[in-house]
Amino acid sequence: MGVRRTSFLGCFILAVLGLIISAPILCRGGTTSSFVRKVEKTIDMPMDSDVFSVPPGYNAPQQVHITQGDHVGKAMIVSWVTMDEPGSSTVLYWSNNSKQKNKATGAVTTYRFYNYTSGYIHHCIIKHLKFNTKYYYEVGIGHNPRTFWFVTPPQVGPDVPYTFGLIGDLGQSFDSNRTLTHYELNPIKGQTVLFVGDLSYADNYPNHDNTRWDTWGRFVERSVAYQPWIWTTGNHEIDFAPEIGETKPFKPYTHRYRVPYKSSNSTAPFWYSIKRASAYIIVLSSYSAYGMYTPQYQWLYEELPKVNRSETPWLIVLLHSPWYNSYNYHYMEGETMRVMYEPWFVQYKVDVVFAGHVHAYERSERVSNVAYNIVNGKCTPVRDQSAPIYITIGDGGNIEGLANNMTEPQPEYSAFREPSFGHATLDIKNRTHAYYSWHRNQEGYVVEADKLRLYNRFWHPVDDSTTAKS
Question: Where is the signal peptide (predicted)?
């Protein structure tokens, strides 16, 4: 009996020692936020909310939005919808200090989706704009015109400061409105939004109710009519519904939202690139074919060597489904794309990758998993200062609610995670430094729930991790 007690005591001591020794390993994964929020169900705003209101007057243009119209920022795509009749597709525009109005003419399109018929969707490209200039523009000529403005980016250059906002998975709930308001009032003023996919969530409603595309367009007009949003497609843009006879993917999205994909020699609007100030931005599609020999694969293979880090030092990638994700939602959905493209991201020293899809926030350390070849067992991500930081920001506030179920223990590659709605900003200072911050909706505009000074991988590749090294 005494032998048994001694044996048991010895095993107990060994077990305790084992827990003590292993504790640092379990804690190496950075921070899971301790922020406690009031538990509230995410609720859509009523259809009669003022954010959805139709502008007054016959055939008044609505759902006005802009995005970059060429590769370098000297053109703007202006889009809007008229409901009563096609009206004019002309845009009048003039610079801040000019009295002379210039004219550009676009085209109009419509589409049908099940039992829905769209309004008249106008797209017009304004070309040959001057850099760093404020322009006013007028749409709806001939009936009830409306006037807006935008500021073109500075000329592309290695030390040009510029500030991007970051929003994803927005939808049209009360939380969506809080996110957009929070972004608009942030004292770190974003000049362009990098949007990482999932716009209206129209496909969440019966028969993919496309009137929800209209309400969403009116909701976000207050921002996207004045500063360009750079569009990424998400799963909620696919709108593939053979059960109701809709078999053409992305139909509503491609009719409503145009991007300058041809200027970067892309063959489809779902993957493309732009230069803006000191950043080279590559947009990829998680829901288009990306395997070897596909158009997206071939385009990216040819695109990455074109990036001149002496001209645009910051290399940023946008996609929808995250590659590194420690939530139990959409877990490993981005894995096959990661396997295909991650070696290129390390080779070309991508600075940061932004994704959505998971309705929460997470930031990784600089890690890679490129050594794994299915037979060598090297399947654990490792610290890699040539790798990007991966940031999931699918926390815009949509009707599906927060993703609050996380894998435990927190993996080593995860530096910070929190299931809250919010937005982020990326403030590029020069070729070596940028300042990144994430802002949860529940707190004041100046509060930074997560922040990081980013060091450029090409010009200043020092360690910018925020947790202890393994």
Answer: 1-22
